[in-house]
Design a protein that fits this description.
354 residues; 4 helices; Porin; 16% helix
């Protein structure tokens, strides 16, 4: 009978039915059990244990919480230190002015093309105290670089340790703010270099913003320095700014630095494009040409670099990656590549790191 049935199915063109004829019979699946909530016992809904389990932090969470707490404490201490000094000097118990004091702690690792690398810690601070007299401020900073050449100032943070001269120093000064007109602002500093040998210095600065067109802004910055041992130094800086669309910004700056001791100029021309992403990422590209006139006019260096900065946590923990290339005359303009990684903590109550 089965043979006849299978043959009939094959003739009718339904092979599936033919195989089904020979397949063993199976019972259908039983229906799922039905649970009536009214039939459950009353103690089914009782729970004697804790309602919520306490979260357990690992050692990484504990370290992170400790760092956040220390940052908040040190930020308040930095601000309180500035306000306390201001109150002591002014004789007033309350000063309603913000100060721009900060403390920056970090570390960087720099790789060079010859395989060298160096892990270096770094610390910088600035104590900017507004006094009760709005025109006076007390400035104490750890990284004053008035005596550094333009090459070091423009490429700070990307040079190898042996390429950086020991020109940065801690300085303390009393600053007097005196607007010259509605357009021009000026300041004058009188202070001392807190490093052996001690030098007394005076600094004057005047700056102004101009708008040649609706798209362009011109910043003019003139500075004059006098150090008791290094003599006169003058700096003139011009910067042309404009927006490139809704996100990108462009700047072309020209700078000349007169060094009286060497009787010549250092000059720099730098082009810069930058952008911020969602208030957490920052990207900057630069290309610069440096020159001098100490013996005769000569181009001394070309450089290009890219900086990527990310705000890792809140407004105080940052990470940076800086690849850079230098072409120096003293190295026959051969490329010198470096790659710098930096992580930095910024302690301040005036806002995030700019």
């Amino acid at each position: 009978m089965r043979v006849l049935t299978g043959a009939t199915c094959l003739v009718l063109g339904t092979p599936g039915a033919a195989w089904a004829a020979y397949a063993p019979r199976t019972d259908p699946d039983p229906p799922p059990p039905h649970v009536d909530i009214d039939e459950l016992p009353p103690d089914f809904f009782d729970w004697d244990g804790p309602r919520y389990l306490e979260p357990k932090d690992g050692w990484t969470d504990s370290v992170g919480h400790w760092v956040v707490r220390r940052r908040r404490i040190h930020s308040r201490q930095v601000e309180a230190l500035g306000q306390g000094i201001d109150q002591t000097l002014s004789g007033q118990t309350y000063v309603d002015q913000d100060n721009e004091s900060y403390l920056r702690l970090g570390a960087f690792n720099r790789y060079t093309e010859d395989g060298r690398m160096g892990f270096e810690p770094e610390a910088r601070f600035k104590l900017d105290v507004p006094t009760s007299e709005e025109k006076f401020r007390i400035i104490v900073e750890s990284d004053a670089n008035d005596l550094a050449p333009l090459s070091e100032q423009q490429q700070r943070g990307t040079l190898a340790p042996e390429q950086e001269d020991d020109n940065s120093f801690t300085a303390a000064a009393l600053r007097y703010l005196s607007p010259l007109s509605e357009r021009w602002n000026a300041s004058t500093d009188l202070g001392a270099r807190l490093h052996f040998p001690v030098q007394v210095f005076a600094r004057a600065q005047a700056w102004s913003d101009w708008y040649p067109t609706d798209e362009w802004r011109l910043r003019v910055d003139q500075r004059l320095f006098w150090y008791s041992q290094d003599g006169w130094i003058s700096r003139t800086w011009l910067g042309f700014h404009r927006d490139l669309g809704p996100h990108w910004r462009f700047r072309a700056s020209s700078e000349a630095r007169w060094v009286h001791r060497k009787r010549g100029f250092e000059m720099a021309q730098i082009f810069r494009v930058q952008r911020r992403f969602r208030n957490r990422h920052f990207l900057r590209f630069r290309f610069g040409v440096l020159g001098e006139t100490f013996d005769n006019w000569a181009r001394t260096e070309y450089f290009t670099d890219m900086l990527y900065r990310k705000r890792l946590h809140d407004d105080w923990l940052y990470g940076e990656i800086i690849p850079s290339l230098r072409y120096r005359r003293e190295e026959d303009f051969q490329p010198e590549a470096t790659l710098t990684f930096r992580i930095e903590m910024f302690f301040s109550t005036s806002g995030e790191l700019q």
